[in-house]
Amino acid sequence: MTALQAANSTDHFIEANGVNLHYLDYGTRGRRPMLCLHGGAAHAHWFDYVAPGFTAEHHVYAMDSRGHGDSARADAKTYTWHTFAADVNALAEKLDLQDYVLVGHSMGGMISLVNAATHPGRIGALIIVDSVMLMPMERVTRMNAFGTVPARAYATQEELIARYRLEGGEKQLTAPAVLRRMATYGSRQNADGTWQHKSDRGVYANFSQIEGVPFWEKIKVPALVIRGGAHSPRFTPEMMAEIHARAPQVQVATVDDSDHHVTLDNPQGFIEVVRNFLRA
């Protein structure tokens, strides 16, 4: 259950790496930057309920990856891990983010990891939230097939909201009001009056397997791995041993009373573990 109200933010668009990217600015200017990246088929508002916990000490941003939210759709061939990561780096350059905290959830966590390993100059700390370090090929194949199916159109936005579900977790712990907010910001109206999800299915059509563990060898900044609940299948002790062999400085924390969508399921718990890490 969410313990906070959704934060106010301002919408901005910027051309970066050849695409028009949308991002939210939660404030507070002049403080250490924090840039947040959502997961697949999600959007920047995934951080609405945790941003208020950081704005006292950070200038918090959240961006929509290309093909998601209000960022531009692109050629499906550009939906690659390295291009997504290059988008993040280009946005950070355009906003002149220095020593910033990079937070990535799920797919956004892998993008953050690739970005931190390949564009390390500006990043001061890395936080990866319940991400898969190696997607099983069977699941990748299913995602590719899903990406070729035309997106469903709904007669009304209310119909879309009513059918909206979160993927990636076994439990549905997100409060109904929070889920409704995510569905509302994740939907758009077509020219014919119907409604559909904003995310481009081409992202799935071009989804590829990537092995995350080797990237940790290049991570030199302080880093935190967050597990979505004690029963999360991601970041097992065996996986953390592999990561620590490459990056001994990496810390790990579990947010109780949450599933995969940690920032929505237990915002206060997420804020506490991140604050503890950043203040250490």
Explain what you see.
- The chain contains nine helices and ten strands.
- Strand 5, helix 2 and strand 6 (123-129) form a beta-alpha-beta unit.
- By secondary structure, it is an alpha/beta fold.
- The model has no long low-confidence stretch (mean pLDDT 96).
- The strands form two sheets. It has an eight-stranded mixed beta sheet. It has a two-stranded antiparallel sheet with strand order 7-8.
- The chain is globular, with a radius of gyration of 18 Å.
Relevant CATH superfamily: Alpha/Beta hydrolase fold, catalytic domain
Helix fraction? 25-40%
The percent range for strand residues is 15-25%
Rg from C-alpha positions?
18 Å
Residue-averaged pLDDT: 96
Please provide the ordered H/E string of secondary-structure elements.
Answer: EEEEHEHEHHHEEHEHEHH
Strand order in space, largest sheet: 1-2-4-3-5-6-9-10
- Tell how many strands the DSSP assignment holds: 10
How many domains, as an integer? Answer: 1
CATH-derived architecture: 3-Layer(aba) Sandwich
CATH fold name, please?
Rossmann fold
Q: Quote the distance from N terminus to C terminus.
A: 27 Å
For the sheet with most strands, the description reads:
8 strands, mixed
CATH class: Alpha Beta
What general form does the structure show? globular
Tally of individual helices? 9
User: Runs with pLDDT <50, length 5+?
Assistant: none
Overall SS class: alpha/beta
